[in-house]
Amino acid sequence: xxxxxxxxxxxxxxxxxxxxxxxxxxxxxxxxxxxxxxxxxxxxxxxxxxxxxxxxxxxxxxxxxxxxxxxxxxxxxxxxxxxxxxxxxxxxxxxxxxxxxxxxxxxxxxxxxxxxxxxxxxxxxxxxxxxxxxxxxxxxxxxxxxxxxxxxxxxxxxxxxxxxxxxxxxxxxxxxxxxxxxxxxxxxxxxxxxxxxxxxxxxxxxxxxxxxxxxxxxxxxxxxxxxxxxxxxxxxxxxxxxxxxxxxxxxxxxxxxxxx
Length: 260
Fold this sequence. Notes:
- 27% of the residues lie in helices and 31% in strands.
- Residues 164-177 have low confidence and may be disordered.
- The longest helix has 21 residues, at 71-91.
- Helix 1 (46-61) runs antiparallel to helix 2.
- Strands 2, 3, 4, 5, 11 and 12 form a six-stranded antiparallel sheet that branches.
- The chain contains six helices and 14 strands.
- By secondary structure, it is α+β, with helices and mostly antiparallel strands.
């Protein structure tokens, strides 16, 4: 049965955008489950929301779950904790403030008993990078590349924008309505089309490789072969992450967990 087989490495908040916050964290709870997360804040108060989400993950790391718990049940518990943060923001009656129109993307992975369970909102992506196989996208982003999410947002009057155009200006497939890059998030209460419930998925760990969770500042617009090559070589370091953050004009965070 495969699982975490070595040091879990992470880099966080690498970049120059003061209004952004990209954090990563990893810990092992009393059950022996490895809990990992990457959160990326956006908006004037996105930093605060990302840090609040990180504190929820820290709470989960410090929790001893019942003996019958599996990877998915732990991931679902963390997902519920993150969803409740949005309700707490709404209860604060922050309408029309920067806090009301700020949020954070989050991806959580729980590796336990030969499985990895994922809970995610937004565009922090997780890949499984095996040495002898193509990289496998584990979390389909909640943005305009996701047809189901695009149609749902469009139906509620939302406008999804694409920050990865050649001149780095946001463009849209239609006009009118509220504008944002993602359709699910912690916070962003002021956007009618944003869903605050995570999506969940579970995979079996059957091939040695690396579980990699990164913010949009790390991955950029899509699947860059150079990033996957570097991950297989074990040559992703802080200097390389800084280069990606500059290239993608966003702060970056990433967790790299060896599986064997």
